[in-house]
Batch of 2 targets.
Target 1
Amino acid sequence: MKTLLLISHPEIEDSGSQQYLLQSLPSSAAITVRHLDTLYSDGKIDREKEQAMLLAHDRILFQFPFYWYSTPSLLKKWQDEVLTEDFAYGKQKNLTGKEFGLVISVGIKETEYQAGGREGFTVNELVAPLRALANKLDMQYVKPLIIYQFHYLSERDRMRLLIKYQQYLTRQHPDSLKKREDWLVEQVQETNRTTISTEGWFILEQALSIVEDHRLAIDELAMLLDAEGEDY
Amino acid sequence: MKTLLLISHPEIEDSGSQQYLLQSLPSSAAITVRHLDTLYSDGKIDREKEQAMLLAHDRILFQFPFYWYSTPSLLKKWQDEVLTEDFAYGKQKNLTGKEFGLVISVGIKETEYQAGGREGFTVNELVAPLRALANKLDMQYVKPLIIYQFHYLSERDRMRLLIKYQQYLTRQHPDSLKKREDWLVEQVQETNRTTISTEGWFILEQALSIVEDHRLAIDELAMLLDAEGEDY
């Protein structure tokens, strides 16, 4: 599973949330990060290059701040110029079956995004154009990761966000408890032991062993219930 | 009522629908037309100029082709750069009460824009970001004028579109039969007699006189029904 992360933010240097996410990007060969504003500061998008990038990845993610309830203009331009007829739709549909997800940072609190709230619409309603795009291209639309008011998040909530973000980038969708477990085990196995204290390592190993025990218990229960086919 | 028509279309010369609409623009002092791609071919938007334009008009219209279910990128840039905090929302809300409308040309037929249709969403759902924008700025959102598949329209339907378009640009919203009548009378009065044949002129005068008779009858009925306050 190779992920293409397309970031669009005209003022990324000044964005606390974007900097935080960027710093926590897993340095994995399976993730390609492209900041469109850096690549195309003159606004001239290299369509062939972008289309080749799309073909080479299985999951396409847009990461952007919610500007007027939508993508920033450069990411809009990217859509208009890269997702062309007979490449993305029409006679040839090269993106069929790939995953399409959104990482959106929003400056207003979540409860305002509903009828009666100050913004009047849910984020799900507001991203209808992007859902329609995924529909048109026969891509698999993945539940977005929406970050409301990053600046007000506590340190603990930022850590949670970081884990959700890393999972969003690398974990296979649709989500399940089993996949979250597998992801965790994999991450720990890839962790460099020398960067963690002996005590920290001990706690991690304990956590893993508990996860494994729980998995055994869940699998046994599932067998008893004859529900192996279900995705627990 | 002064109308500001902001047109965004990167290939306006090649667009049959845009050319048709442009040619039928009433040459009225009450309409200011600005083609953003011509004004800002370098992509650098003059924010102060644009904000002054907004202040000087009562009705703001976006006219654009539906690119990926949304505005073209330059019009998105215009939104992001012109509709700034403390001008459009926040401490100062300079656009409160102004009308906000959309003239959208769409390449796919109307029946595909619904759940189960190929596009999967209604245009009303897809323009949620623009409806949310009007909501945020306390502007009066006017029912959009949507032009489906201009190229397949018959000559007669194009004439109908032309009248709807001219009314959309100049007539006061919300719409009513009385306002459509007033608009018609005004248009005929402004028409240069020398450009129409004697026979054509006679027909127009007859039509007007019928409209006026009908109006009298409607007003009398309304008085009888004691429903003068209603907007017939």
Note: Chain B touches chain A through 27 residues (CB under 8 Å).
Target 2
Amino acid sequence: MPFDYIPPLLTHNNKKIVLCVLDGLGGLPMIMGGKTALETAKTPNMNRLAKEGMIGQTIPIRPGITPGSGPAHLALFGYDPLQFDIGRGALSAAGVGLKVNQGDVAARGNFCTLDKDGMIIDRRAGRIPSNESLPIVKKLQGVQIPGVTVEVEQVKEYRFAIVMRGPNLDHHLEDSDPQVTGVPPLPVKATRKEAESTASLFNQWILEAKKVLADEPKANGITLRGFATDPGLTSFKDAYGLHAACIAVYPMYRGVAKLVGMDIIQFEGEKPQDEFNTLAQHWNDYDFFFVHIKKTDSMGEDGNFDGKVHIIESVDQALPELLNLKPDVLIITGDHSTPCKLRSHSWHPVPFLLWAPETHRPDEQDEFGEGACSHGSLGTFPALNTIPLALAHAEKLIKYGA
Amino acid sequence: MPFDYIPPLLTHNNKKIVLCVLDGLGGLPMIMGGKTALETAKTPNMNRLAKEGMIGQTIPIRPGITPGSGPAHLALFGYDPLQFDIGRGALSAAGVGLKVNQGDVAARGNFCTLDKDGMIIDRRAGRIPSNESLPIVKKLQGVQIPGVTVEVEQVKEYRFAIVMRGPNLDHHLEDSDPQVTGVPPLPVKATRKEAESTASLFNQWILEAKKVLADEPKANGITLRGFATDPGLTSFKDAYGLHAACIAVYPMYRGVAKLVGMDIIQFEGEKPQDEFNTLAQHWNDYDFFFVHIKKTDSMGEDGNFDGKVHIIESVDQALPELLNLKPDVLIITGDHSTPCKLRSHSWHPVPFLLWAPETHRPDEQDEFGEGACSHGSLGTFPALNTIPLALAHAEKLIKYGA
């Protein structure tokens, strides 16, 4: 339970909350004295919301800690990733629609290229494209070993997810990816005694899998990592009383949303307006919407400053459709920073905007950017506070104590 | 113990601390672009203190949580209400001078009006005025049952406090107020086995009480709620080394102050200057004064913006008398926000002013208001930090470690 004092305070109303996450939103100037991508982007709509509402900046995990996508989203949803340890395997499996029940063991899989001696020569199988890897994943789906059942689904390119189901499985296993080339994949090893038979089962499965992959020119080997089981998180409904929906293009984010019990809405298209269109179509079905925009992060990772500016502007241009729905609480933020200058996720605080015209206390800031957010009236605060603040501004919490 | 690292650091001096709480001080603008009540009020004295001293804003309980008065004051006094669970019955009883020892069971009582079939037709007995209810409370004081002693005191109007003393009592009891009319009061029920005999004793007492109230036209019934025993809080003296006094008009606030071991000063009058006069008279007797101004909150709950402005101005006008005493540390803040716009307590951060001319570090803010406080050098911080900050600025804490 993220906040055990919240469920007794929950009260129902028809107000609607939208949490719009621009992945990796926070940035850095490329040169001294410059502006960040968010500050450079022309965002008249976000600036108006910032002027009318209130802004601040969040610490995703802990000060100085650079988060991965999974932990960063869990924090935004109020589940402290240092308290709730959720393996990447469970996230990936959930993200491609594989069920992970308690006792199942999920992992992330990579195709790799092995030479004739079984040494890894490419850890990502030449970044084999998705259309090429799909038939290879189909082959893997036929690989079974006695005593357990194994399910495999494609993630993207050289990546897949795997779930093993059966009696007495234990997920305390070490990654088999050695992280370097010129050596063979590691055997799956148990990190505690109870997991030894599960390690052996995964190693048997890998052996069988290698047989069906033997003729593949690139994807003739496999590594597994992020072994995990269902973390058994309290659902969004139980934790916050919210009937919640996820609108996201990428499986990973659907996976995290699913782990906290959100409904995943299927839709066509990849652009911000496609996502906001989907939101509009389902507006009456939910009281909480998590909308995830991926490409701000991708541009950050690519070091593409103009590209990141452009993505932010495209979200701003699509915003009026969302605003026409008259959300009671709209939060626009990121899960972490991904400065183009660093070409990677970073620990820097994340711009945060909360607009709730009935209940917000406007501050004196009138634009949405890192500099303004560091002066906003919400201050610098843990991302964990996001949902409690949203619930409060939607007047979904009664008074604590008389 | 609120902060176990503080007692070993305490050192005695003659410096005096005043904590002046304007209940429900924080607010919201009534219209977009407007000002809050505090920002609207003409407060030349508070503005001077803000200019000379330092300001910030507090989170009363946790982000997004709207506090009741009891928890909000406990937080200001450094007792985390999520850690120290204190029933309202114990607060009310303490507030009217009834001792609540460990093992005693206290509750809040309401007179109600019952029809001839015993159904509640008015849960507050027509809000019977205090002068009419006093003789009825006297009647109740005569109602006793075998095996225990029962004490009753008037709170105000239709409300009273009750304490039962005797062997093997247990306060795990449910409210008997059904919260609706047209039904009879509920029997007092135990929420655990050990409390069943106590439930039975309260039901016996209510039965006897109904006999003596039978002829009352309005107050012929009783409901009880908020059953609690002494929470056994560490006293202010032990926690902070402070000889502390409470100057408050309303019983509730005296009650909380008493629970943490403050002396309650009796005085005539209800106005800020009456409270500051009382402070002046007892200036040499204590080193910590908690002064509570109630009506800012009442005006907020009534949605009376001009009224709230007026109360804040009346406090400001009375401040010179307090300042003439030359307090070493003066804190002016609220326990929570009560925006006139919402007509209720809220979760919004609370303006906070700390003036300690010998030790404060002045910031660049020069007025006392929500906007300025969100930019103050104290930042946004838990209300729990209030007393440690006061002790520090009064130089009552030695260095931690060498």
Note: Residues 7-85+233-393 of chain B form a domain with the Alkaline Phosphatase, subunit A fold (CATH 3.40.720.10).
